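Notes from the 1:1 (GR / supervisor)

We went over the backlog. Supervisor wanted to see one worked example end to end before approving the batch request, so GR pasted a single chain during the call. The sequence is below; no edits were made to it. Supervisor asked that the structure be written out right there so they could see what the output format looks like.
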Amino acid sequence: MPWIPATGVRIDWMVAPANLLHGVLSWCLSALIAGHIVMALFHQLALKDGTLARMAGSLLSAVRCKPEIARSKGSAPVRSR
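Structure output shown during the call:
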């Protein structure tokens, strides 16, 4: 279901900016994604500083929440069982 129902009338002044920006913005997004992948691999393979591991996380940390992460300023301490 579209958010804005189609009327069948083409409004050129509304379509023109989207046509101009769509290609440029898609290339910018593609470049940002590619750059992010390249830099993550650079950190992993050349610098070996563990950045990729911190970004990806581990399966264990995704399954359970660590108490130090769950705490926030002003909240009550989290008790472990």
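Supervisor's comment: The chain has a mean pLDDT of 80.
Batch request approved.
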